[in-house]
Amino acid sequence: MTRRRLSVSLLLLLTPLAGCGSAPPRQPAALEQAGKTDQAAHRAMRDGDLLRARELFRQSMLMQQALDNAPARAQAAINLASVSHRLGDDEAALAVLEPILTEDKPYPGELRAAAALRKGVILADAGKPADAAWQQAQQECHQSCAYRAGITNLGARLAAARGDHAAALALAQQGLAGSPGQDEQANGLRLSAAAETALGQQDKALAHYQGALEIDTALGLSRRIAADLHGMAEVLGKLGRAGDAAQYAQRATAVDEAVSSLSASAGKRAVP
User: Is the separation of the CB atoms in 208 and 196 below 8 Å?
Assistant: First the structure.
């Protein structure tokens, strides 16, 4: 074989191999745009720009609906409800959740559980009956459900609201045992502490509030830091440690005032 024919043969052999290392084909434009919109919405929420996050989640929901992607549409709707709730528009938040909970569509049980949990939290925050939403969340949350700890913590909140502090403590402890994330761990600790305070178990309550405070400080959650400090001030007062109680109460008030000032100056930007 001549040198020229050998070079051509090698080129023909190598050409298919070059294609193997090429970049994979891009997603269709509509799918790519929907994904980018969802990512931008999460960035806006992390940055505290709730108005932008609300609009982007609304766009994401509509894009997924246009693609007939029911699970992705439901996830965007749940995120939209969360942002609307933080903006104080509970009516809009509940309205966007309702189709997930009532429509006969192929929504995974875990997404129905998440929607029911979000509805329950919104109702509980407003002081409205939330037991039906909590029960639906429990029914939809199966063995591998990622929202089990949050649902259990909501149950503890509802038990405490009706004055059943023993049940609240049991549920909060159950939530702690099954919580994989720091956010729900802190909630479980705070709920345990509140129940223990009502049950006269002040030393345990103080330790649980301290644990919640450490997590909330690490996560940078100002409103929860204030709640932890207020709880610790109450417990210290019950333990007869008036000086320490006053110190923690002053810290809690200072955090509250700072949050209020930041919220007023930031408009619709969120203070965690």
Answer: yes
Please tell me the pTM assigned to this model: 0.85
pLDDT (0 to 100) of residue 11 = 40
Grouping H, G, I as helix, E, B as strand and the rest as coil, residue 25 is coil
Rounded to 10°, the helix 109-125/90-102 angle is: 150
- Residue 16 pLDDT more than 80? no
Please give the structure tokens belonging to residue 264.
Answer: 């007023």
Report the candidate in 185, 257, 246, 247 with the shortest Cα–Cα distance to residue 218: 185
Please, are residues 212 and 183 in contact by the beta-carbon 8 Å criterion? no
**Collapsing DSSP states into helix, strand and coil, what is residue 269?**
strand
Contact yes or no for 122/81 (Cβ under 8 A): yes
**H/E segment holding residue 237:** helix 222-238
DSSP conformation letters of 54-118 = HHHHHHHHHHHHHTT-HHHHHHHHHHHHHHHHHTT-HHHHHHHHHHHHHS-S---HHHHHHHHHH
Going by C-beta distance under 8 Å and a sequence separation of 6 or more, which residues neighbour residue 117? 133, 134, 137, 147, 150, 151, 154
| Structure tokens, 5 | 């024919």
Hunting for tokens 């982007």 — which residue is that?
56
Task: Judge whether 96 and 77 are in contact, CB under 8 Å.
Answer: yes
